[in-house]
Design brief:
single chain; 234 residues; Rossmann fold; seven-stranded mixed sheet; 7 strands; globular; binds S-adenosylmethionine
């Protein structure tokens, strides 16, 4: 995929903002399969430093509720003010397991490189997420995952690197089954075309986690990994 929109944000491909492989390109890829329209109310679930919220608000004119657990609302609000986006992005600190919103309040929920931390179980979407999206509204997620069902070799390769995160990574087929079971009407489910490019953007930063990733990850690892994405409606 040619990430045309993300090119306008190259100043943000830095240690300060990125929390992993290029999240702007992840969000561009995800939203290219959704239909976000000006004025829609959208949750960016697990928004991190709010980069992906900035992208959605600017590119589509949506109002974004930037919801995250590890980053405080205050930290994100400071960034949002610097960006001059306080009318369009609302920072909220909270856990995806107990969102504080009214039912049917949102036109869409988008989530990049986050949903696997909490949503990787059957029933989560149905019980904790779907009720906040209005009838016919949209959901889209993109997360790191495995290309094939993990086996012993995958464990040997990844156990020390991913640790407890290992069980959070799944294959595309696994996610499809879970979302279908939870009632999402899937419009598209796919593996990222830009995996190598997104990783290269991250490994170019001097973020300590990126430096560590560069030390630990080999071609053998990359051969097993990808980003997997699902988009659909409720
Ligand atoms: C790797 S970062 C990605 C952040 C951002 N989406 C991006 O792509 O730059 C994962 C994010 O998921 C969020 N997260 C993890 N568990 C969460 C939970 N239970 N509820 C809400 N957010 C959560 C973390 O706070 C973190 O900011």
């Amino acid at each position: 995929m040619n990430y045309i929109r993300s090119k306008n944000y190259e100043n943000f491909f830095t240690n300060e903002f990125l929390m992993g492989p290029n999240s702007l390109k992840l969000m561009e890829e995800l939203t290219s399969e959704m239909s976000l329209k000006q004025g829609m109310r959208v949750i960016d679930l697990g928004c991190g430093t709010g980069l992906t919220s900035l992208f959605a608000a600017r590119e589509f004119g949506v109002q974004v509720y930037a919801y995250d657990l590890w980053v405080t609302a205050g930290e994100n609000y400071n960034r949002i003010k610097e960006w001059g986006m306080e009318e369009r992005i609302i920072p909220i600190h909270g856990d995806a397991n107990e969102m504080p919103f009214a039912e049917d309040f949102f036109d869409a929920i988008i989530t990049a490189d986050s949903y696997h931390y909490y949503g990787n179980k059957s029933g989560f979407f149905k019980e904790k997420v779907a009720q906040y999206i209005k009838q016919g509204g949209q959901f889209g997620m993109i997360v790191p995952g495995f290309k094939r069902e993990p086996d012993e070799k995958t464990h040997l390769l990844f156990d020390d690197i991913l640790k407890e995160e290992f069980s959070e990574w799944q294959t595309l087929e696994w996610w499809k089954k879970v979302f279908i079971g939870d009632g999402l009407k899937i419009s598209k489910a796919w593996e990222s075309e830009g995996f190598e490019e997104l990783w290269a953007d991250w490994l170019r930063t001097d973020n300590p986690y990126a430096i560590n990733d560069k030390k630990c990850l080999t071609e053998e690892h990359f051969a097993e990994m990808n980003f997997v994405a699902v988009a659909g409606t409720v």
